[in-house]
Amino acid sequence: MTDIRITGIPKEAGFGDYVALLKPRVMSLVVFTALVGLLVAPVTVHPMIALTGILFIALGAGASGALNMWWDEDIDRVMKRTRNRPVPSGTVAPGEALGIGLALSGIAVVMLGLATNLFAAGLLAFTIFFYAVVYSMWLKRTTPQNIVIGGAAGAFPPMIGWAVATGGVSVESLFMFALIFMWTPPHFWSLALFMKSDYSDAGVPMLTVTHGRPVTRTHVLAYSLLLAPLAVAGAFTGIGGPLYLATTLALNGWLLVGAVRIWRRDEAEAEADRYRVEKGFFRFSLYYLFLHFGAILAEAALKPYGLGGW
Amino acid sequence: MTIRAEHEIHRRRLGRNLGVGLTLAAFILVVFGLTVAKVSQLGERGAFAHAPPGAMGQ
Questions:
Q1: How many whole angstroms separate alpha carbon A129 and alpha carbon B11?
Q2: Residues of B in contact with A44 (CB under 8 A)
Q3: Cβ contacts (< 8 Å) between A48 and chain B: which residues?
Q4: ipTM of predicted complex
Q5: What is the pLDDT of residues A93-146, one digit of tens each?
Q6: Measured between CB atoms, does B38 come within 8 Å of chain A?
């Protein structure tokens, strides 16, 4: 009997591939920072409204991730770090990613507006626009300052969380924005230092590609020097306190030590130990942000017991 | 090669359909919960504040 061999069946996406389209790891950071912004605001929100708010902020972030994946398909296909994503791997068609991104953006913004307030919804819409259009379509391929300005997109979630509760902006929510905004460059540039040829292969004008690694090392140090005093100053806003101050002093001391070590190294040294310091700094930067927001949350949680805040 | 009725693609489709179904069910629950929360807040704020005095008692 002759075997029948069916070939050319297109790859068919499972549900998990659509979830991956929404960049769940980025979403988890968005959920955490937005939740902190919402919980530390001086206005109590009904738990169901808070849950809905966070859910749709996360969905909006996921939608912008899908739009980014649609637009960056050509770049993602080249880079090792991203070539297994659903669109470049061919599991999800680019048009489908665009459709999902646009539909989910609309749902997230409208639902956030209905559940909470128009200001929060407007801020979410602006964040999606900023990430998908300003960062992905414009800055990413044109300037080595792409992640500096584009970092604003990742910095908005705690502001949206705060806006869900209060309906506005304050020094505290601006501080949380500034913290993530200033944290983004050293975080990404330390990653770029050990990603080797990924960005140059893809033609993305990352600082390592356009200005070289020594300049990037100097930039990591410079932005860390700017970030540290800002993070410490947050201790003296309405959401800071002694616990936050102790946490931020320790973390920023560590940050500066790491940044100086990166700055003092050259490529031969980094190659010799396979970018151990750079990788360590990158990992630490994730804890850095998580612990800062954790300390802000702890200050708010301790307030009812007379312990949090000044 | 035998032709099997069940192919890996069918499993993926089932998983995808279940995922979409559950997501829609969760969305309905969220909207329902949100409605309950909003209506209960209206009650707290005095939803009938616009009614003329005594209207609620009739």
A1: 36
A2: none
A3: 33-34, 36-37
A4: 0.80
A5: 999 999 999 999 999 999 999 999 999 999 999 999 999 999 999 998 999 888
A6: yes
